[in-house]
């Protein structure tokens, strides 16, 4: 079922369509007509082009958006490195990426902690709140591959945010496009192109370079979830092949924001101040895995109108049209692909985002859960809610907010109890996954685990393999015996 609708404030109006060429004006006639860069753009705005692909990328891949804004985004003092955070968050990423641990063992993590205060300094509730990490401070690189400076590879993150980013703070990543998968808590995301409200069972994608600010709406509680940053390429919809022209995630269900701006002006070095924000706006940038910051005298959220096909978007996983066998055998999980970031080799993804939503299993004479297997692709899994049909839940199991990694050629499959149950199950039509949703980031790359993921987070289940497969039984009866 789609995430329930409620009355959306005006800021959450959306435009529908995946990869569509869209346009949006927060003020009528802010977009120039018939050209992109007139001598004087309408309303005294600046025209600024945001290129998401090389200028010369083929038409079907070319991504760009024209922004019409109060001040161009180049007007800022030099960026300076942020000091290391000391808590192995995104600010410590370059070190983390250089020290990845490549491990052939199957790994599973207990649910990651919610945001905790970094110090006890300050006794008031407001002080304590301020000591909690915001979305950027609470982003931890768990695993990764490649190098953002070469635009190769990806980063897998978990996040735990206990407060909104400051009202005068924005963040962007030059390293890649970020897919965010909330597991608990609502993210109210202000982007240069407008607002996105992203709740558990929804996802969003923020393209490389787009500035944004993540807020936690009042009363929605702390936020926790997963994210994947693509250092290379972009997410797109998977081919449908013989499925035909509809199915899986349909293009019209992807939602892009409408233009929305803060009414504030005043360039760096000028005296004209930003009344609303006290004239100061912190912009943080992740660049080559390193965090930088600058303080500018104008809001980055001053885009009054835009047109293009390079924009953030959200998708409600409840709208996924799940397809499966109606005869026999368990299909490859690629049938559940929501988004795919292809490599240069057709059919082989740098990252596929795959979900396991509730679905009917009707296969006859079929072992219905996933088969035992080894894969040249690496498989990182998380659980948004409920359970997963191949793994037990409960303490020490695969539970919401936790994760697993089955790396290149690491054998895995149902744990012994799930296997025995499915082997003996009566094969009547059965609904699995009611109220559940697991997901997988599947990559052609070998994924290394960070120090934080292996040690600091203290969530690795040491006995994962033994508990899952230590007790697998021999059913072999000897040659010729059925
Ligand atoms: O390993 C997993 O649980 C993910 C998975 C699910 C499935 O249905 C088939 C293959 C596969 O890797
Ligand atoms: Fe698998």
From TrEMBL:
GO biological process: L-phenylalanine catabolic process; L-tyrosine catabolic process
Top-level taxon of the source organism: Eukaryota
Catalytic site: 330
CDD domains per UniProt: cupin_HGO_N
Residues involved in homogentisate binding: 388, 412
InterPro entries noted in UniProt: HgmA_C, HgmA_N, Homogentis_dOase, RmlC-like_jellyroll, RmlC_Cupin_sf
Annotated positions binding Fe cation: 373, 379, 412
E.C. number: 1.13.11.5
Pfam families for this protein: HgmA_C, HgmA_N
Any one of the GO CC terms: cytoplasm
Domain Homogentisate 1,2-dioxygenase C-terminal: 319-475
Family annotation (Gene3D superfamilies): Jelly Rolls
Record domain Homogentisate 1,2-dioxygenase N-terminal: where: 13-317
Keywords for this protein: Dioxygenase, Iron, Metal-binding, Oxidoreductase, Phenylalanine catabolism, Tyrosine catabolism
A GO MF label: metal ion binding
Involved pathway(s): Amino-acid degradation; L-phenylalanine degradation; acetoacetate and fumarate from L-phenylalanine: step 4/6
Cofactor(s) needed for function: Fe cation
Family: Belongs to the homogentisate dioxygenase family.
Protein name: homogentisate 1,2-dioxygenase
């Amino acid at each position: 079922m789609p995430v329930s609708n409620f009355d959306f404030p005006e800021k959450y109006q959306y435009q529908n369509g995946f990869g569509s060429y869209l346009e949006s004006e927060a003020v009528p006639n802010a977009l120039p007509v018939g050209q992109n860069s007139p001598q004087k753009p309408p309303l005294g705005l600046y025209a600024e082009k945001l290129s998401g692909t090389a200028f010369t990328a083929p038409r079907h891949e070319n991504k760009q958006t024209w922004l019409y804004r109060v001040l161009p985004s180049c007007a800022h003092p030099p960026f300076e490195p942020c000091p290391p955070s000391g808590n192995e968050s995104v600010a410590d990423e370059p070190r983390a990426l250089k020290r990845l641990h490549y491990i052939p063992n199957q790994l599973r993590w207990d649910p990651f902690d919610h945001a905790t205060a970094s110090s006890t300094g300050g006794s008031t509730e407001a002080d304590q709140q301020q000591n909690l990490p915001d979305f950027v401070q609470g982003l931890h690189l768990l695993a990764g591959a490649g190098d953002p400076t070469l635009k190769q590879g990806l980063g897998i993150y978990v996040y735990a945010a206990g407060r909104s980013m400051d009202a005068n703070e924005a963040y962007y990543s030059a390293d890649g496009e970020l897919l965010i998968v909330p597991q608990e808590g609502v993210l109210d995301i202000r982007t240069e192109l407008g607002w996105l409200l992203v709740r558990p069972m929804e996802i969003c994608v923020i393209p490389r370079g787009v500035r944004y600010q993540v807020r936690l709406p009042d009363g929605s509680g702390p936020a926790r979830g997963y994210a994947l940053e693509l250092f290379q390429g972009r997410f797109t919809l998977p081919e449908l092949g013989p499925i035909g022209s509809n199915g899986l995630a349909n293009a019209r269900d992807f939602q892009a924001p409408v233009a929305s701006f803060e009414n504030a002006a005043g360039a760096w070095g000028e005296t004209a101040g930003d009344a609303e924000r006290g004239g100061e706006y912190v912009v943080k940038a992740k660049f080559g895995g390193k965090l930088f910051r600058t303080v500018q005298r104008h809001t980055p959220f001053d885009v009054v109108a835009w047109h293009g096909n390079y924009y953030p978007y959200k998708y409600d996983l409840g709208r996924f049209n799940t397809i499966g066998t109606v005869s026999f055998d368990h299909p490859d999980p690629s049938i559940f692909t929501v988004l795919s970031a292809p490599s240069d080799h057709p059919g082989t993804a740098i990252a596929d985002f795959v979900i396991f939503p509730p679905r009917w299993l009707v296969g006859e004479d079929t072992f219905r859960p996933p088969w035992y297997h080894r894969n040249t692709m690496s498989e990182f899994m998380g659980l948004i809610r409920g359970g997963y049909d191949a793994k037990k839940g409960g303490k020490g199991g695969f539970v919401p907010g936790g994760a697993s990694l089955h790396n290149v050629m690491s054998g895995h499959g149902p744990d012994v109890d799930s296997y025995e149950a499915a082997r003996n199950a009566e094969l009547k039509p059965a609904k699995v996954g009611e109220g559940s949703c697991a997901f997988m980031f599947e990559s052609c790359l070998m994924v290394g685990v960070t120090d934080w993921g292996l040690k600091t987070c203290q969530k690795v289940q040491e006995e994962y393999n033994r508990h899952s497969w230590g007790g697998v039984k021999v059913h072999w009866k000897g040659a010729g015996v059925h």
